[in-house]
Write a structure and sequence with these properties.
By secondary structure, the protein is an alpha+beta fold. It folds into 3 domains: 43-96 and 109-195, no CATH class; 210-262 and 272-419, no CATH class; 453-569 and 576-692, Jelly Rolls. It is built from 25 helices and 16 strands. The strands form 4 sheets. Strands 1-2-13-9-16-5-4-3 form an 8-stranded antiparallel beta sheet. The chain has a 4-stranded antiparallel beta sheet with strand order 6-14-11-12, with no helix packed on it. A hairpin with a 6-residue loop joins strand 3 and strand 4 (506-511). Helix 1 (5-24) packs parallel to helix 5 (103-126) and helix 23 packs antiparallel against helix 24 (527-547). The longest helix is centred in the first third of the chain and has 28 residues, at 59-86. The protein starts with a helix and ends in a 44-residue tail after the last helix. Its cofactor is L-ascorbate; Fe cation.
Length: 735
């Protein structure tokens, strides 16, 4: 059934406005219900109660309440969905009159339909959910559940209750959304070593919400192996699942209770209608941003842009290569609804139609109806939102790149277009972004060690927060550490003879402080050399803390002695790098010149350093580039005792040139301002020395840690084994 076109936008606006207003007071009429205790209780209250029990050491109670908070939230979403479906037919008698009525009578029937449906929803939800359970939760609670923090508490709780299978499942579920959480990574390794725990126990309990990502990864896998039939099958399923997830998210925006708009002060002219409009627009904005929510992987901060159109692009190509030409035409026409003037897509459509030849039915294939409906709904919402931007001072940032220009009102179109052009220019140029370093470090401080000289500063290195210091080690010390590396490699440290992960033309050996200490206790290396390896980390930290004038404490995050050796006879015509250009604490995208500070990058790294041990090899120079990963801005040649230090952020993309002859050895170090990310392997090594009555040079206690308070994400909630603290180790990301 079709509504009158001139009434369509008004109908949408009224529907969301009245539904939103009723949802504000959804609990008011139910406050006297006699069966409140049998209804769903607020899941935020259950969560807070579980956390209190956790900190009180009441492990069984904590497990019960935390599990109940998770299941209550899941049940609440299901109740909302069921009520939405059950109330879909409400008001249909009034709705049927909309096509035949005009003027004020049309408005009355529209109001009657909307009100009947909203009342049905309120009554239905009230049958299953307590009045307080229907109220919106705080943004803090939303954050806790979005980051899966209940599972962080649960994995400790089950560990304490000796239910290690459940602990392993909770730990894995939390880690999927927090892949850079070093302590949880270590806990999972501990669970794997525990008796009675198998790989099947590491289940993601939230997997139902991420089905579209499972399908996406499977489609990419089949596409990479040119299995086009299976790729098309998975891409099709991924598109359908993405639409389902988006619909579910949009439905929850519509049915859930809404917060009142923020009061803009005593000077505001907002009346009840303005506030109601703001509430309605907020609901529409929530529905629009479901695109972003569905397109964001667990553990990622940024959404994948153009998520649905990208899937359609992959799908039509896979269908064409699999021989499904009719399906390819339909999918491509669906894609063209997003980008109707895309030249490559129009050329592909012509190719597909020529391939079909005289098959008239296939030529007439129309876009998928679910895509037509998706775009139609989205555009109607955008029109209302931009009306609010133009007339009601509403703030809305469009999450879609495909929004057509004619949806934007003419009065703000020029500003909208200028903002898009400005953003494009900034991304294309990237120069302004490269000049900013928000690390909090300021190069140019004192060099507090006799014999150490400043060789290159920011100006000489053509960048920000970069330094080269010489004389940090003596020739004898370089020789000792090189000997340590050679002995460790000969006895085997897990790296011997392995090809480099970055190039097939080199092999590498690596050694950590803890491994060196253990080898020394076994009598395989000199104890003095192991202690020197540890002490060098403290020495470098002192130098960089002073030179970069760090306002807060600095902690060693990871230390790794690594040697790269050129593979003899495998260097001719070599064009690759020993280590490709990258940034240490964010994910560099050279094409857009953006750097995303999110997992799987080591986002906690603040300072990076390379302490060189030798120069009797060819190649191996460290170099800096702009964000395009191509324009070299500076280069540093290794030599014994030379220290290269720099801030770990996006102002310092860097790489290592190929080692084409000999063996290049260096000590790679990373530092953090956050104590929680300190190198626990060093502390374990220090504990081994202390157990033998040996003193350890350590300066962390003398420094202040500006982030000592427990974080909101409860990073320290990790099980400790009875025989000492657990190790937290980083990946071997050598410089």
């Amino acid at each position: 059934m079709a509504l009158h076109a001139q009434h369509l936008t008004a109908y949408v606006a009224r529907y969301y406005l009245i539904l939103a207003l009723i949802n504000i007071t959804v609990g008011a009429s139910l406050s006297g219900s006699s069966n409140v205790l049998s209804l769903l209780q607020p899941y935020d209250f259950l969560y807070y109660s579980g956390v209190r029990a956790y900190y009180g050491g009441e492990w069984a109670k904590a497990a019960e309440l935390l599990e109940k908070s998770i299941t209550t939230k899941e049940t609440l979403l299901k109740v909302r969905r069921q009520c939405y479906d059950d109330c879909a037919a409400s008001g249909t008698a009034a709705l049927s009159k909309l096509d035949s009525e005009e003027g004020n009578t049309w408005d009355q029937w529209a109001l009657d339909w909307i009100q009947q449906r909203a009342e049905c929803l309120r009554f239905c939800i009230g049958q299953s959910v307590s009045p307080t359970g229907q109220l919106p939760v705080s943004t803090d609670i939303e954050y806790e559940f979005d980051t899966r923090n209940p599972y962080n508490f649960l994995q400790v709780t089950y560990y304490k209750l000796e239910k290690v299978k459940k602990a392993a499942s909770a730990a894995h579920t939390y880690f999927v959304a927090n892949p850079s959480h070093l302590e949880m990574r270590n806990n999972i390794e501990k669970y794997r070593r525990m008796e009675g725990v198998s790989e099947e126990d590491f289940q993601d309990r939230e997997i139902e919400k991420e089905k579209h990502w499972v399908l996406y990864d499977a489609a990419v896998h089949h596409e990479a192996s040119s299995d086009w039939l299976r790729a098309a099958e998975k891409w099709k399923a991924c598109v359908n699942q993405t639409l389902l997830q988006t619909d579910e998210c949009r439905l929850q925006c519509e049915v859930a209770a809404q917060r009142l708009p923020v009061d803009r002060g005593v000077d505001s002219v907002d009346g009840v209608f303005e506030k109601a409009a703001a509430l309605s627009l907020s609901l529409l904005s929530c529905r629009q941003f479901c695109v972003t929510e569905v397109a964001t992987r667990p553990g990622r901060i940024s959404a994948q842009e153009d998520f649905l159109p990208t899937q359609l692009e992959h799908l039509h190509i896979a269908q064409f290569k699999a021989g499904d030409f009719t399906g390819a035409v339909q999918t491509l026409r669906s894609f063209l609804l997003f980008y109707p003037s895309d030249k490559d897509s129009l050329d592909n459509l012509q190719l597909y139609l020529e391939t079909l030849g005289g098959d008239k039915d296939s030529h007439d294939t129309q876009p998928a109806q679910e895509i037509v409906r998706y775009i139609s709904e989205s555009l109607e919402e955008k029109k209302l939102l931009y009306f609010g931007v133009e007339n009601l001072d509403f703030s809305f940032t469009d999450p879609d790149l495909w929004t057509p220009e004619d949806v934007v009102p003419e009065s703000i179109r020029d500003a909208w277009r200028a903002e898009k052009e400005k953003l494009s220019e900034k991304i294309e140029d990237g120069n302004q972004l490269e000049e900013v370093d928000d690390s909090g470090f300021f190069a140019g401080g004192a060099v507090p060690q006799v014999g150490v000289t400043l060789t290159m500063d920011d100006e000489a290195l053509n960048g920000t927060n970069r330094v080269v210091l010489d004389g940090v080690m003596t020739e004898a010390e370089c020789g000792s550490i090189l000997q340590l590396a050679s002995v460790a490699a000969s006895v085997g440290d897990g790296y011997r003879g392995r090809r480099s992960p970055h190039t097939p033309h080199e092999t590498f050996e690596g050694l950590t402080v803890l491994r060196a200490v253990k080898l020394s206790q076994e009598g395989l290396v000199n104890q003095s050399d192991a202690r020197l390896l540890h002490e060098l980390g403290e020495r470098v930290k002192t130098l960089l803390h002073s030179y970069f004038r760090s306002p807060s404490g600095l902690f060693i995050s990871f230390t790794h002695l690594v040697c790269r050796s050129a593979v003899t006879g495998d260097q001719e015509g070599r064009l690759d790098l020993s280590h490709p250009v990258h940034v240490d604490n964010c994910l560099l995208e050279p094409e857009t010149k953006q750097c995303w500070r999110e997992p799987p990058a080591f986002t906690h790294r603040d300072l990076s350093a390379i302490l060189y041990l030798n120069d009797n090899f060819d190649g191996g120079e460290a170099f800096f580039t702009k964000r395009d990963a191509k324009t070299v801005t500076a280069q540093v040649k290794p030599s014994c005792g030379r220290l290269l230090g720099f801030s770990s952020g996006p102002v310092n993309p860097h790489g290592v040139r190929a080692v084409t002859r000999g063996r290049r050895c260096a000590l790679a170090l990373w530092f953090t301002k956050e104590k929680i990310y300190r190198d626990m392997e060093r502390e374990e090594a220090e504990a081994l020395w202390a157990a033998n009555g040996q003193e350890v040079l350590k300066k962390d206690e003398e420094e202040t840690d500006g982030s000592a308070a427990a974080s909101r994400n409860a990073r320290s909630h990790a099980p400790k084994e009875k025989r000492g603290r657990g190790r937290v180790t980083e990946g071997k990301d050598e410089l």
